[in-house]
Design a protein that fits this description.
This protein is α+β, with helices and mostly antiparallel strands. Helix content is 37%, strand content 25%. The protein has 13 helices and 19 strands.
Length: 391
């Protein structure tokens, strides 16, 4: 689950992570009121969407008068903001964050993510703040400092020293401030079961203080039960409606841009299925894990969600019957075709418990667009042919 910048900064405030003052606004009129409340003579109007690159897309603007705050807010609220992270369809901006201006002397990057290879969180930092970190990692990877923190010992002074020395910060007072900042950020990450925290840019002010000028946070969905306050921050309007609908039925769904719909049980098998489709010359239209307790209702809902994508030209059902018997899945597929208009070829590979019986059930059903497959490779090959309109 992701949250907005203003929500991330609310969490930062609880841990003493310094940020500029700001107030959220849903209308241009609220934006004007908020700017007056903040005071000063310069403000930043920030679009609030779950995506980075807002500034490059025109979603972050500097206002030098109260009239300009209202004008910019009216331009940004209601716009479809397209960034490198939203895709070409963009995201509708429904609110803006009005933030006080800041004295920016330098811009850095600071983040905390999970390194799955090291099996521990790493703190990432760079002198290239304000830039796309993906581009920095690709073009100049040597400019990214990575400090792994073993959760068994937590953030220690030597972690902080590695960060400040890597960033070239030599002033002792500034070193102390940044180490303290990073220590608090690590605590935010660990306490809240975060998957990712990103501050880009982290600014150094003229007085040598460090402020989180931006804030991006993502959380482990499986841990939200421990954090009802964070779950309450969920903005459903920012999430893919099909993915949201799928989750209500216990399905894990992610839309992709291919032509072959995938319905699989188990995340690992789903990834392997998509890889095999690619290897065979096709492109997967989605990731869909129906879980270990697939039944007619969940299979029907899976078909319904997959077929909402007009690009889907074939569906590959790849189920391993371990917890659930294959013959039940076969009957579920037949039942699902009565509940949903499945108008594209459906290639079915079932393996595991009662797989032989399941294949017979599908063959005896005599439904032309259901095509049994022998194994994963056979199923993927047939799905690719069907998507291309080949027999």
């Amino acid at each position: 689950m992701n949250i907005h910048e203003y929500q991330a900064k609310q969490i930062f405030a609880k841990y003493g992570v310094p940020t500029p003052r700001g107030i959220i606004a849903n209308t241009p009129e609220e934006a004007l009121i908020n700017a007056k409340e903040l005071g000063g003579n310069i403000w930043v109007v920030k679009a609030q969407i779950h995506a980075g690159g807002r500034g490059l897309g025109g979603g972050v603007k500097l206002a030098r008068s109260l009239d300009e705050v209202k004008t910019l807010a009216s331009e940004i609220i209601g716009m479809t903001l397209v960034t490198h992270q939203t895709g070409p369809e963009g995201k509708l901006v429904q609110k803006v964050y009005i933030e006080e201006g800041a004295d920016i002397k330098d811009e850095l990057y600071l983040g905390v993510v999970l390194d799955r290879a090291k099996e521990m969180p790493i703190i990432m930092a760079s002198t290239e703040g304000g830039m796309e970190i993906e581009k920095v990692a690709h073009d100049t990877p040597e400019k990214i400092i990575k400090v792994a923190v073993d959760p068994a010992i937590g953030f220690q002074g030597f972690h902080g020293r590695e960060l400040v020395f890597g960033l070239g910060i030599t002033n002792p007072d500034e070193q102390k401030k940044l180490i303290n900042f990073a220590s608090k950020l690590y605590k935010v990450y660990m306490d809240n079961d975060a998957e990712m925290i990103e501050i880009n840019p982290l600014i150094k002010t003229g007085s040598g203080d460090f402020l989180a000028l931006d804030g991006k946070m993502g959380f482990d969905d499986s841990a939200l039960g421990r954090h009802p306050d964070i779950e309450a921050m969920r903005d459903l309007s920012e999430e893919d409606p099909d993915e949201r609908e799928a989750s209500q039925y216990g399905l894990s769904y992610v839309s992709l841009d291919g032509e072959i719909g995938c319905m699989v049980n188990g995340a690992g098998l789903a990834m392997g299925t998509m890889d095999t489709i690619n290897y065979m010359g096709g492109t997967p239209a989605n990731f869909l894990d129906v879980g270990g307790k697939a039944n007619a209702e969940t299979v029907a809902k899976g078909f319904e969600i997959i077929l909402k994508n007009p690009n889907v030209k074939a569906i590959f059902v790849n189920i391993f019957g371990g917890i659930v018997r294959c013959d039940r899945i076969a009957n579920g597929i037949l039942e699902a075709t009565n509940l949903v208009d499945v108008h594209v070829p459906v290639i079915v590979r079932l393996d595991g418990t009662n797989a032989t019986e399941a294949i017979e059930i599908l063959r005896n059903a005599n439904i032309p667009n259901i095509i049994p497959a022998i194994d994963l490779a056979d199923g993927a090959a047939k799905a690719v042919k069907a998507a291309k309109g080949e027999k």
